[in-house]
């Protein structure tokens, strides 16, 4: 549905009898229904109409995405273009941690048995935005990153690489591609634009 919605004119004119292009995409089940949109027949939308026809003629099979924990995910989350890992927002439980931009930290996410290493992108009012990095100090003999203890993972941000694109407000199961344990996480989608999503209220215990 999301693929079709992105190809529609987006005017939300109601001429098809529905309130929005999103509702039209959800209700569209065959090629005959395309005629209900007065704009798809215009030359400027010919390419998009053709792409919608292909989607309707050969609907893609939903890919099964499984974590090593055996749980099924709605989608896999990959880094934003040009970035080494998904972005994560962390809240250190140690009030004296005070991470600095560019610093590499060692910590353990609450609920995860694996020690993480991350480079700080920004820190503001108790929240650090980070990229995960490997324990490079073990390879190049640089000083050990500062240990800030246990942190609460508040949010993930990245792009959907496999599976379906979620809706804002939806509670989802997702598999971060950089997760060493390949464990399915859960959370609530607070932003979804194209393939880019932000997920908050993260829970490492998926029920």
Helices and strands, with pairings:
Layout: H1 2-7, H2 21-27, H3 46-57, E1 65-66, E2 72-73, E3 75-78, E4 87-92, E5 104-109, E6 116-124, E7 127-133, H4 137-140, E8 146-163, E9 171-176, E10 185-193, E11 196-203
Parallel strand pairs: 3-9, 5-8
Antiparallel strand pairs: 1-2, 3-8, 4-7, 4-8, 5-6, 6-7, 8-11, 9-10, 10-11
Write out key terms for the chains shown.
207 residues, mainly beta, 3-methyladenine DNA Glycosylase II, Chain A, domain 3, 2 domains, nine-stranded mixed beta sheet, two-stranded antiparallel ribbon, 11 strands, 14% helix, elongated
The helix-strand sequence is HHHEEEEEEEHEEEE
Summarize model confidence as the mean pLDDT: 89
Query: What global shape is seen?
Result: elongated
**How far apart lie the N and C ends?**
27 Å
Helix content: 10-25%
Q: Work out the strand percent.
A: 35-45%
Radius of gyration: 21 Å
- In DSSP terms (H or I, runs of 4 or more residues), the helix count works out at 4
Poorly predicted parts: none
Query: How many independent structural domains?
Result: 2
Category from helices, strands and their pairing: mainly beta
- Strand tally is 11
Major sheet: 9 strands, mixed
How would you portray this structure in words?
It contains four helices and eleven strands. It has 207 residues and is mostly beta strands. The longest helix has 12 residues, at 46-57. 14% of the residues lie in helices and 37% in strands. Strands 3, 4, 5, 6, 7, 8, 9, 10 and 11 form a nine-stranded mixed β-sheet that branches. It has a two-stranded antiparallel ribbon with strand order 1-2. It has helices spanning 2-7, 21-27, 46-57, 137-140; strands spanning 65-66, 72-73, 75-78, 87-92, 104-109, 116-124, 127-133, 146-163, 171-176, 185-193, 196-203. The model has no long low-confidence stretch (mean pLDDT 89). The two termini are 27 Å apart. The chain folds into two domains: 2-57, 3-methyladenine DNA Glycosylase II, Chain A, domain 3 (Orthogonal Bundle); 65-203, no CATH class. Strand 5 and strand 6 (116-124) form a beta hairpin.
């Amino acid at each position: 549905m999301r693929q079709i919605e992105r190809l529609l004119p987006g005017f939300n004119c109601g001429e098809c009898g529905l309130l929005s292009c999103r509702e039209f995409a959800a209700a569209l089940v065959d090629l005959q229904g395309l005629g209900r949109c007065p704009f798809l027949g215009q030359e400027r939308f010919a390419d998009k109409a053709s792409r919608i026809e292909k989607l309707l003629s050969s609907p893609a099979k939903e890919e099964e995405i499984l974590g090593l924990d055996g749980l099924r995910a709605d989608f896999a989350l990959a880094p934003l273009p040009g970035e080494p890992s998904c972005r994560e927002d962390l809240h250190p439980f140690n009030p004296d941690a005070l991470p600095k931009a560019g610093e590499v930290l060692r910590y353990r996410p609450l609920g995860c048995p694996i020690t993480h290493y991350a480079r700080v992108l920004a820190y503001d009012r108790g929240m650090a935005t980070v990229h995960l990095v490997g324990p490079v100090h073990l390879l190049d003999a640089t000083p050990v990153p500062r240990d800030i203890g246990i942190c609460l993972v508040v949010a993930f941000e990245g792009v959907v690489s496999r599976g379906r694109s979620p809706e804002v407000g939806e509670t989802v199961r997702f598999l971060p591609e950089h997760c060493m344990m390949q464990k399915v996480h859960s959370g609530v989608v607070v932003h979804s634009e194209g393939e880019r999503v932000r997920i908050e209220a993260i829970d490492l215990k998926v029920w």
